[in-house]
User: What shape does this take?
Amino acid sequence: MDLIRILLAVFLPPLGVFMTVGLGGAFWLNILLTILGYIPGIIHAVWVIAKRSE
Assistant: This one.
């Protein structure tokens, strides 16, 4: 399941974060980072997914 979330995080970073943490602060932060720059959104999404799967 983590592989699917990481693939979603690469193509749609907020969706990967939403599937991991829901509509929390991390989701809104990821939307902001994705709007400001696509790469920071991807990095944050992968970090959130990796942190939750530990």
